[in-house]
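Quiz preparation item.
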């Protein structure tokens, strides 16, 4: 069991901290939109910004164990935020279309909040997969010697 963990430590850590980040994202979105009545687009942007900060800190430290400093760290941070902007725009588009356009037309009023959170969860699954690929292949890529 220990050797399996060591073999897949990065993926297991990414899934765990991706889950934490997803809970932060959905929790902030749900709290703002569902409990406080903040418009879904604004609630989603705020949730995204907070979850990106959590994701960078956890990915850098515990998932990819980055040791970069100085300019290399700034490059890493810049590409991380850039990648998250890309998937954040995708998430925002999915949320806007599903919550603001599809929801009012197809989902009964009494089920709309559940629909909104379900869409948020599904969008997060797609975002997590794309973010892992970007993080592994571009952002925290280890230089081969």
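Solution:
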């Amino acid at each position: 069991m220990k050797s399996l963990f060591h073999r897949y430590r990065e993926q297991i850590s990414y899934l765990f901290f991706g889950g934490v980040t997803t809970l932060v994202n959905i929790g902030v979105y749900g709290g703002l939109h569902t409990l406080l009545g903040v418009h879904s687009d604004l609630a989603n942007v705020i949730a995204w910004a907070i979850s990106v900060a959590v994701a960078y800190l956890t990915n850098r430290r515990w998932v990819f164990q980055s040791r970069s400093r100085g300019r290399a760290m700034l490059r890493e941070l810049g590409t991380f935020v850039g990648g998250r902007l890309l998937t954040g725009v995708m998430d925002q588009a999915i949320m806007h279309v599903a919550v603001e356009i599809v929801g009012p037309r197809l989902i009964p009023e009494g089920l709309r909040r559940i629909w909104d959170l379900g869409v948020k969860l599904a969008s997060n699954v797609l975002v997590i997969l794309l973010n892992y690929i970007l993080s592994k292949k571009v952002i925290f890529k280890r230089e081969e010697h």
